[in-house]
Amino acid sequence: MAAKNITQCKVAPRRLAVLLGLYSSFTWSQDCNPAITATAPAKVFTLYKNGTALDTRSGLLWQRCSLGQRWDQDNKRCLGQALHQSWHKASNAAAAQLVGWRLPSVNELSALVESKCQSPAIDQTVFPDTPIDHFWTATPFVGQADYHWLVQFQFGENHVDKDSRGALLRLVKDLGSLKP
Prior knowledge:
The protein has helices spanning 13-20, 87-96, 106-110; strands spanning 31-32, 45-47, 52-55, 60-63, 70-72, 77-79, 117-118, 134-140, 147-152, 157-162, 172-174. It is α+β, with helices and mostly antiparallel strands. The N and C termini lie far apart (75 Å).
Protein backbone atom coordinates (compact mmCIF):
# COMPACT_ATOMS: atom_id res chain seq x y z
CA MET A 1 0.00 0.00 0.00
CA ALA A 2 1.45 3.35 -1.04
CA ALA A 3 1.78 6.08 1.57
CA LYS A 4 -0.46 9.06 0.92
CA ASN A 5 1.05 12.50 0.87
CA ILE A 6 -0.64 14.44 3.68
CA THR A 7 -0.10 18.15 4.07
CA GLN A 8 -0.36 19.53 7.57
CA CYS A 9 -2.10 22.82 8.03
CA LYS A 10 -0.96 24.88 10.96
CA VAL A 11 -3.48 27.49 12.07
CA ALA A 12 -2.93 29.81 15.01
CA PRO A 13 -5.40 29.08 17.86
CA ARG A 14 -7.07 32.51 17.53
CA ARG A 15 -7.60 32.12 13.78
CA LEU A 16 -8.92 28.61 14.28
CA ALA A 17 -11.39 29.87 16.88
CA VAL A 18 -12.57 32.61 14.51
CA LEU A 19 -12.90 30.14 11.63
CA LEU A 20 -14.97 27.81 13.80
CA GLY A 21 -17.14 30.65 15.14
CA LEU A 22 -15.97 30.09 18.70
CA TYR A 23 -14.50 33.52 19.29
CA SER A 24 -17.41 34.76 21.40
CA SER A 25 -16.48 32.45 24.26
CA PHE A 26 -12.88 33.67 24.41
CA THR A 27 -11.45 36.88 25.79
CA TRP A 28 -8.87 38.55 23.57
CA SER A 29 -6.67 41.51 24.14
CA GLN A 30 -8.06 44.50 22.27
CA ASP A 31 -5.91 45.84 19.43
CA CYS A 32 -6.04 49.59 18.70
CA ASN A 33 -4.11 51.65 16.19
CA PRO A 34 -3.20 55.07 17.66
CA ALA A 35 -2.51 56.42 14.14
CA ILE A 36 -6.23 56.18 13.30
CA THR A 37 -8.57 58.90 14.56
CA ALA A 38 -11.11 57.61 17.09
CA THR A 39 -14.68 57.36 15.78
CA ALA A 40 -16.41 56.74 19.13
CA PRO A 41 -13.98 57.99 21.81
CA ALA A 42 -14.74 57.88 25.53
CA LYS A 43 -14.78 61.69 25.66
CA VAL A 44 -18.15 61.83 23.85
CA PHE A 45 -19.82 59.78 26.60
CA THR A 46 -20.98 60.84 30.05
CA LEU A 47 -20.64 57.83 32.36
CA TYR A 48 -23.10 57.25 35.21
CA LYS A 49 -22.72 55.10 38.34
CA ASN A 50 -25.82 53.07 37.46
CA GLY A 51 -24.06 51.38 34.52
CA THR A 52 -25.28 53.65 31.76
CA ALA A 53 -23.48 55.96 29.34
CA LEU A 54 -24.92 59.01 27.60
CA ASP A 55 -23.71 59.57 24.05
CA THR A 56 -23.54 63.37 23.96
CA ARG A 57 -23.54 63.35 20.15
CA SER A 58 -26.90 61.60 19.79
CA GLY A 59 -28.57 62.09 23.19
CA LEU A 60 -28.96 58.30 23.50
CA LEU A 61 -28.47 56.55 26.82
CA TRP A 62 -26.79 53.12 26.56
CA GLN A 63 -26.50 50.24 28.96
CA ARG A 64 -22.77 49.72 29.39
CA CYS A 65 -23.20 45.94 29.78
CA SER A 66 -24.74 43.43 27.41
CA LEU A 67 -28.06 41.92 28.49
CA GLY A 68 -27.30 39.13 30.97
CA GLN A 69 -24.31 40.95 32.44
CA ARG A 70 -24.50 43.28 35.43
CA TRP A 71 -22.63 46.50 36.16
CA ASP A 72 -20.01 46.42 38.95
CA GLN A 73 -19.45 50.09 39.87
CA ASP A 74 -16.56 49.34 42.27
CA ASN A 75 -14.47 47.70 39.54
CA LYS A 76 -15.99 49.65 36.60
CA ARG A 77 -16.75 46.51 34.60
CA CYS A 78 -19.47 44.11 33.52
CA LEU A 79 -19.82 40.79 35.31
CA GLY A 80 -21.60 37.63 34.23
CA GLN A 81 -22.40 36.06 30.90
CA ALA A 82 -24.10 37.91 28.06
CA LEU A 83 -27.20 36.11 26.80
CA HIS A 84 -27.45 34.72 23.25
CA GLN A 85 -31.04 34.98 22.05
CA SER A 86 -33.07 34.85 18.88
CA TRP A 87 -34.26 38.22 17.57
CA HIS A 88 -37.81 37.65 18.90
CA LYS A 89 -36.54 36.76 22.39
CA ALA A 90 -34.20 39.76 22.32
CA SER A 91 -37.07 42.04 21.29
CA ASN A 92 -39.26 40.66 24.09
CA ALA A 93 -36.40 41.02 26.60
CA ALA A 94 -35.98 44.67 25.62
CA ALA A 95 -39.71 45.28 26.08
CA ALA A 96 -39.59 43.63 29.53
CA GLN A 97 -36.97 46.10 30.81
CA LEU A 98 -37.76 49.33 32.62
CA VAL A 99 -39.70 51.94 30.67
CA GLY A 100 -38.03 53.28 27.56
CA TRP A 101 -35.30 50.67 26.95
CA ARG A 102 -35.33 49.20 23.45
CA LEU A 103 -33.32 47.53 20.72
CA PRO A 104 -31.15 50.07 18.86
CA SER A 105 -31.35 50.65 15.13
CA VAL A 106 -28.41 49.46 13.03
CA ASN A 107 -27.26 53.09 12.65
CA GLU A 108 -27.46 53.74 16.41
CA LEU A 109 -25.52 50.61 17.35
CA SER A 110 -22.98 51.16 14.57
CA ALA A 111 -22.23 54.58 16.08
CA LEU A 112 -20.61 52.73 19.02
CA VAL A 113 -18.09 51.00 16.75
CA GLU A 114 -14.57 52.25 17.38
CA SER A 115 -12.90 51.94 13.98
CA LYS A 116 -9.37 52.24 15.35
CA CYS A 117 -9.83 49.07 17.45
CA GLN A 118 -10.67 45.43 16.97
CA SER A 119 -11.43 42.48 19.23
CA PRO A 120 -13.63 44.25 20.30
CA ALA A 121 -14.23 47.23 18.02
CA ILE A 122 -15.66 49.40 20.81
CA ASP A 123 -14.21 51.70 23.47
CA GLN A 124 -13.66 49.43 26.46
CA THR A 125 -13.49 52.37 28.86
CA VAL A 126 -17.15 53.04 28.13
CA PHE A 127 -18.29 49.48 27.31
CA PRO A 128 -16.00 47.11 29.22
CA ASP A 129 -16.21 43.35 28.78
CA THR A 130 -18.08 43.63 25.48
CA PRO A 131 -18.09 40.15 23.93
CA ILE A 132 -16.56 39.76 20.49
CA ASP A 133 -19.86 38.72 18.99
CA HIS A 134 -22.96 39.77 17.03
CA PHE A 135 -25.54 42.15 18.54
CA TRP A 136 -29.16 42.46 17.39
CA THR A 137 -30.69 45.67 16.10
CA ALA A 138 -34.32 46.64 15.58
CA THR A 139 -33.68 47.26 11.88
CA PRO A 140 -35.38 44.67 9.64
CA PHE A 141 -33.75 43.56 6.40
CA VAL A 142 -35.81 44.72 3.45
CA GLY A 143 -35.13 41.60 1.37
CA GLN A 144 -36.35 38.96 3.87
CA ALA A 145 -39.24 39.17 6.34
CA ASP A 146 -37.51 37.03 8.99
CA TYR A 147 -34.07 38.73 8.90
CA HIS A 148 -32.66 41.67 10.88
CA TRP A 149 -29.43 43.66 10.85
CA LEU A 150 -26.69 42.85 13.36
CA VAL A 151 -23.46 44.58 14.38
CA GLN A 152 -20.48 42.33 14.97
CA PHE A 153 -17.99 43.76 17.46
CA GLN A 154 -14.88 41.83 16.52
CA PHE A 155 -14.21 44.18 13.59
CA GLY A 156 -17.33 46.39 13.80
CA GLU A 157 -19.06 45.01 10.72
CA ASN A 158 -22.78 45.12 9.94
CA HIS A 159 -24.64 42.26 8.29
CA VAL A 160 -28.02 40.54 8.21
CA ASP A 161 -29.04 37.15 9.50
CA LYS A 162 -32.09 35.04 10.18
CA ASP A 163 -34.10 36.03 13.28
CA SER A 164 -33.74 32.53 14.74
CA ARG A 165 -29.94 32.74 15.16
CA GLY A 166 -28.50 33.52 18.58
CA ALA A 167 -26.98 36.96 19.14
CA LEU A 168 -26.44 39.41 21.99
CA LEU A 169 -28.27 42.57 22.99
CA ARG A 170 -27.22 46.04 24.17
CA LEU A 171 -30.16 48.24 25.10
CA VAL A 172 -30.61 51.94 24.41
CA LYS A 173 -33.00 54.63 25.60
CA ASP A 174 -33.98 57.94 24.04
CA LEU A 175 -32.99 60.33 26.77
CA GLY A 176 -33.64 63.66 25.14
CA SER A 177 -32.83 66.46 27.56
CA LEU A 178 -33.39 64.35 30.70
CA LYS A 179 -30.61 62.73 32.74
CA PRO A 180 -30.87 59.19 34.17
